[in-house]
């Protein structure tokens, strides 16, 4: 494995197909550049098509022959997720990389179209549903990977299984965000277990960008959000560097299911394999989250 891994270490991706959610900005845009630059066809799955088309132009400016396909996906709507997945599967013969990248951070309290707390609904349940719909084509593609974007914020995270949507407790925007990022790791662990036990040629892995300056942003209006913004810009690394753990997890030969990639020094540095928190390795919580997610979305991909 390369000590200082960069996009130059990405193997040839010609003939491979990737979906990247939130591909129009920040980490998603850099992930798209990296995959397209290595020859992959990238489906840019985005909520705002105008922004996505503009982002595709930015990719083509650095990768003139990029194979890109811009499609609408709103992770805050299970109906939109189903439509996207059905349309993709209808015209596709393979899916090598499902990049569950899109996310929201530190929002004021709100609900998705389906009544879920927005950060949990978008960051976790939307991607759970997308993955569930695409399990058949993933399992039909040798060497395929599901790569989920978590955060170092999973470490202070806590699963509120008695009130995942903060319906009965005081809403905390950062607590909700941390819960959603812990959910990404627990989901990936439960997914990997199911791929392995079913004999699928697919693995589930996870990454985090460290402290990267991206358009994800702290979108809430609270004082803490405003106080943290200048510090984030001071200590963060670029989105291009922050995308490397995800790209390494998605493309490096020899990656094993369940692995987790991030910056060497937690908040910044070169992409390396690391160990998530003990909470993220709680198999009972992973199973409980999986079962709850199936119930909330009415999707049972391994039934």
UniProtKB/TrEMBL annotation:
One of its GO terms (molecular function) is oxidoreductase activity. Pfam families: adh_short. InterPro entries: NAD(P)-bd_dom_sf (IPR036291), SDR_fam (IPR002347). Coiled coil: none annotated. Keywords: Oxidoreductase. PANTHER family: PHOSPHATIDYLINOSITOL-GLYCAN BIOSYNTHESIS CLASS F PROTEIN (PTHR43157:SF31), PHOSPHATIDYLINOSITOL-GLYCAN BIOSYNTHESIS CLASS F PROTEIN-RELATED (PTHR43157). This is Unannotated protein.
